[in-house]
Design brief:
Number of helices: 14
Strand content: under 5%
Shape: elongated
Number of strands: 0
Radius of gyration: 21 Å
Length: about 280
């Protein structure tokens, strides 16, 4: 979307909010503020996003809409998390979770548990992260939400690979890639494949790993998806290591073949040839 389109969307949301304010409709005023906050967050305007969500929260509190309150508190937590204010973000997610356990649906709980799991992983509280992601996975399975289940499998795989069982972590990441590919989410399927490269000791299996990494990165490049620069640097280092182990000719041949193959084929080979131990 071009900048002019962003500006037009912002203007339409603002005008809608002003109309609802003039009509005294607090419910739709709060809904519009939430939409403005989400749009600001997506464009990186975090302070504006937080301000809009806090305005929405104030209206929802005046109406006593507990489920909407829980969502706004989590939205504020998302902005705090994006700014690196992890303790404050966790406090907001925990408040949201408490409200959602009383007033929300199982689907509502999934996003909050996912956020708390990711925060716990960032803080190095891996056992707690596993607990959050395990509950999230059970809920996603229960309500049949395959997209949420695939995302949670990836989160759980990332954490598990850093605890006692790197191979189990790899299995979960592959299961995530398979499910994402089955529901048509090519971006997340490729991301799960790429994340396999970061499983501890995975680089010891260069013949298995390099085609996986090459296939995943090729898809992300084609789709215009950029990973964090620190992650890209680490993946570059892993590719160089694999090249040094395999030799330049073999490494180039494996990468070229993987990049030219369908993503589902790369996922299937990774599953079939998964090393017995890491």
């Amino acid at each position: 979307m071009q900048l002019s389109q962003f500006a037009n969307a912002d203007r339409r949301l603002r005008e809608a909010r002003e109309r609802f304010t003039a009509l005294g409709d607090e419910d739709f005023q709060a809904r519009t503020l939430k939409a403005e906050g989400v749009a600001a967050f997506d464009r990186g305007r975090l302070e504006d996003a937080e301000a809009k969500h806090r305005q929405a929260l104030a209206l929802q509190e005046s109406m006593g809409d507990q489920r909407a309150i829980a969502h706004s508190i989590q939205n504020i937590g998302n902005t705090l998390n994006a700014r690196g204010e992890l303790a404050a973000a966790q406090e907001h997610f925990e408040r949201s979770l408490s409200l959602k356990r009383q007033w929300g649906t199982k689907r509502d709980l999934i996003s909050t548990l996912m956020g708390l799991g990711n925060l716990a992983e960032r803080a190095g509280r891996l056992e707690r992260a596993v607990q959050y992601h395990t509950e999230c996975l059970a809920l996603a399975t229960e309500i049949g939400d395959d997209r949420a289940r695939a995302m949670t499998l990836a989160n759980l795989g990332s954490v598990t690979s850093r605890t006692e069982d790197a191979r189990r972590g790899a299995e979960l990441l592959l299961e995530s890639a398979e499910l994402h590919e089955r529901v048509g989410s090519e971006t997340f399927a490729a991301h799960s494949l790429v994340m396999l490269s970061l499983v501890p000791a995975a680089a010891e299996h260069a013949e298995w790993l390099l085609p996986i990494l090459s296939a995943g990165r090729a898809v992300l490049l084609r789709l215009g998806v950029q990973l964090a620069s620190s992650v890209e640097d680490e993946l570059d280092q892993i590719e160089r290591h694999c090249g040094a182990v395999l030799g330049e000719a073999r490494a180039l041949a494996l990468s070229a073949s993987a990049e030219a193959s369908p993503l589902g084929e790369a996922i299937g080979r990774a599953r079939h040839d998964l090393p017995a131990r890491f």
